[in-house]
Amino acid sequence: MDQAKLQDVHNLLVELAYEAGRMMRAATPSTLTSGSKKNSVDLVTETDRAVEKMISSKLQERYPDYAFLGEEGYQPGMRLGTGPTFVVDPIDGTTNFIHANGTGVCVSLALCDKKVPVVGVIYNPFTDNLYSAIRGQGSFLNRKIRLPLKSPVPPLTGLNAALVAVEWGSDRSGNNWDVKINTFKNLGQQGKGMVHSMRSLGSAALNFCNVASGVIDIYWEAGCWAWDVAAGWLILEESGGLVADANPAGPQSTVDPWKPAVDGRRYLAVRACGEGGRSQREIVEEFWSHVAGRFEYEN
Hints:
Elements: H1 3-26, E1 35-36, E2 43-44, H2 46-62, E3 67-70, E4 85-92, H3 94-98, E5 106-113, E6 116-124, E7 129-134, E8 139-141, E9 145-146, E10 163-165, H4 174-188, E11 197-199, H5 204-213, E12 218-222, H6 226-238, E13 242-244, E14 266-270, H7 280-288
Parallel strand pairs: 3-4, 10-11, 10-12
Antiparallel strand pairs: 1-2, 4-5, 5-6, 6-7, 7-8, 8-9, 12-14, 13-14
């Protein structure tokens, strides 16, 4: 896909992100008017559905031959295909949206080709921050400020000096829940990982953006879907960041842990690193040593 086409897609996604933002700001969701999908913490609002409908119709009008994969239209068995596909989360951070916590709300828009994100746009209408990237052209905040924000980029020295993003997710029992909770314990405990601290923003897309910006060092996540991470993944990579598997490397690995799939549902994101510290791979391997078990998510 040539650069001119990618630029055209990027410009359209930016327009749609701003329109989605206007819809979000005009809405008045609450816990009384929202519904749930999987359980009482997996929430959806009419605004989620309206925003996705607006985006999908306008993308279909401009690019009728491209596929579309969106959170609200997803049906079990749908997969990210190899052809050009728009991957959309109309509101990432719906729980924050319902609780009027605007710091963790955004629309996430990506174009994937051959299952690889090539354009990504993420917009938080409540902070008016727009993150965007085109593969091979870097990533930016508000289309002008290149990411990461700090220059020179500071080194990565180890988990004991890292600020780590984690999320509770909507699975609150079983193996995957146990892996998360026990790993959180390892990361916080003196004598083990003992990271500087852990943060839960409530938006996978914005967590990726924070790692790309350099204000978060590491983001460890499992249970998300392609629409949660596709745009943020590209924004992170174009800032010099790395994405590995949330599960540790080892004999039980069925995929290359250094080449996770966008729709693989397990992610370990590490920011760009400057000179004088450890490599991103060393940081990933240190993190893996504190992961308590293995996630088992179906795609």
